[in-house]
Amino acid sequence: MSIGPTTTTSAIQQPVSYHPPQLAVIVPSYNERDNIELLYEKVALALSGTPWEMIVVDDDSPDGTADLVNELSRVYANIRCLRRFGRRGLASACVEGMAVTSAPYVAVIDGDLQHDETILPVMLEKAVAGADLVVGSRFAEGGSAGNGLSATRLSGSNFANKLAGMIAGQAVSDPMSGFFLIRREAALKAAPKLASDGFKILIDLIVTSARMGTPLKTAEVGYTFRQRHAGESKMSPLVVIQYLGLWLSKLTGGALPPSFLLFGLVGGTGVVVHLLTLGLFTSVLAQGFVVSQIAATLIAMTWNFFLNNNLTYSDRKLRGKRLITGLLSFFAICALGGVANISVASAIYAWDQQTFVAGLAGAVMSSVFNYAVTRAFTWK
Question: What is the Cα–Cα distance from 371 to 337, expressed in whole angstroms?
Answer without folding.
Answer: 10
